[in-house]
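name: query_chain
kind: protein
chains: 1
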Amino acid sequence: MYYDRTGPRLPQARGPLSAAVGACLRGTAPPPRPEEASDADPFGDDLQLALYLCYELHYRGFAGVSPALEWDPDLLRARAALEQRYLSALRADTPVHDSVEEAVEDLLVEPADAAGVSHFLCERGELWQLREYAAQRSLYHLKEADPHAWVLPRLTGRAKSAMAAVEFDEYGGGRPERLHAQLFADLMTDLDLDTTYGRYLDAACAPALATVNLMSLFGLHRALRGALVGHFAAVEITSSPGSRRLAEAMRRTGAGPAAEFFYDEHVEADAVHEQVVRQDVIGGLLEDEPALAPDVVFGIDATGHVEDRLAAHLLNAWQAGASSLREPLDREPRDDAPREGEPRDGEQGDREPLGEEISHIS
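structure:
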């Protein structure tokens, strides 16, 4: 029997759905029944954490969790119900543009009275707020570009080539020390944060989880490849001006050279990427598959919707002088993963692989 030993620890549950998924991953109970997701808050802590746990099996997994659970049929059925609840809410709540051209044009123009998170941090953010921001964003940035890589096998021709070129830059252009995930880890070191992958999952708010889950939702479904391209476009097109403000925030607060460099790098790189994404990734995709235009629009606008929800959460907390986190950054993480050679809860020595065991529990 084999368990992952190097992944992050499983987090604390935030409700019945995430508790049931966590118990399933520990091997102590079946996953939640699909119908249990029907009344859950689609943007709430419980559903978003449960969905995040399911998705993370497709990335690095969790310490003490069997890799076989990645394709466990019962867990996949539960995940599908969680996804449908989230996706239905996104489609119902997201105002969408009439065309790709209009959606992209709005991304290119910042309102004169814009007052988002990067504006706040640039103008008056304090170091503790930058640390909170980095900790929550680490759930994505320590695997930066990975969710978007799922779309590569689903593209062809010009779109595929252009997407691969941008991803190559995100992965450091062949230099491991220039991986954007590594550059973010360096930023975290400057901010005196723990760079362990997944370390701040317990601290992260539901809106932060929702932004990461959106990428995984789009990336893991071939039917949503157009939405993933739209998400990618929204990120790349809006990144450069926001990164410029965040770099200035890092300089103003004395965060450190690596903290400044991460955002300075994105100012330059994403200014180039924006042109490639607009002309070749979106242009190439719609040249090959024009019917995907509404999905590209939805991907752009859903990205804006979840980012706006996160911004509202952060700014409401910070403007009130409160923390945006669920727990302090310096709280020691729990260690619920079984140690090497120790049986899991309820385990009696040698048994069949965990994925096979759970798949037939009803």
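note: The chain has 14 helices and no strands.
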